[in-house]
TrEMBL record:
InterPro entries: DAGK, DAGK_sf, UDPK. It is a multi-pass membrane protein. The active site is at E72 (proton acceptor). A divalent metal cation binds at E31, E79. Belongs to the bacterial diacylglycerol kinase family. Substrate binds at E72. This is Diacylglycerol kinase. The chain crosses the membrane at residues 34-53, 99-122. It is found in: Cell membrane. It holds the Pfam family DAGK_prokar. Its main location: membrane. Its cofactor is Mg(2+).
């Protein structure tokens, strides 16, 4: 199958958006960690409406959710590529996968800090 580049701006962007939505759907419906993180994102979004958080709190919360889900998507891609390249356990592949998981960990810690800063005053 020969690759044929779409030369028009509009249809090219439309195809890109279609691929991105398809990828996001695959991520949410197949990866358990993303399912959990999406559920937490939904809960804090509902909490935001319940507590009536400010516009700036919404902005920071939205960025934190996007950060975690975006980094998790990249982590999943790294893991899938690593498993494709070397399906058996390999120490160097494990090292790479651990680093990618560490990036998710930092993003999650950041999101937890954001949630604490936003919601603890509403709960106190």
């Amino acid at each position: 199958m020969e690759f044929k580049k779409d030369e028009t701006f509009f249809t090219g962007r439309l195809k890109s958006i279609t691929f991105a939505v398809k990828g996001a759907f695959k991520l949410i419906t197949t990866e358990h960690s993303v399912m959990v993180q999406s559920s937490v994102a939904l809960l804090v979004t509902l909490a935001g409406f319940y507590f009536g958080i400010s516009k700036s709190e919404w902005l920071i919360q939205t960025l934190a959710i996007g950060l975690v889900l975006g980094i998790e998507g990249l982590n999943t891609a790294v893991e899938k590529i690593a498993d494709f390249v070397h399906p058996e356990f390999h120490e160097r592949i494990g090292f790479i996968k651990d680093i990618a998981a560490g990036a998710v960990f930092f993003a999650a810690l950041t999101a937890i800090a954001v949630a604490a800063i936003i919601y603890i005053p509403y709960l106190a």
